[in-house]
Amino acid sequence: MSTLQFIVIWFSGLTITADVRHSHVMARQYLNVLFTPTVAFKGHTEGLCGVMDNDPSNDLKGPDGEQYNDPIHFADSCK
Question: What pTM did the predictor assign?
Fold first, then answer.
């Protein structure tokens, strides 16, 4: 099966890669997005990308400020 992939690279070095994949487990396609920031973003991110401060305890903070332990519930809160 072929994969459709898009790669966007900014002058700052930030890269976003998106591709469509198929999960045999879920029996459907899904969008996989990889956000690769540079060190300039350290401490200046939030949401699905986390805070990028080397503290994994605050990476699943929802848009309403609630801290999630389950990544699925966290992702659902960002819809």
Answer: 0.59
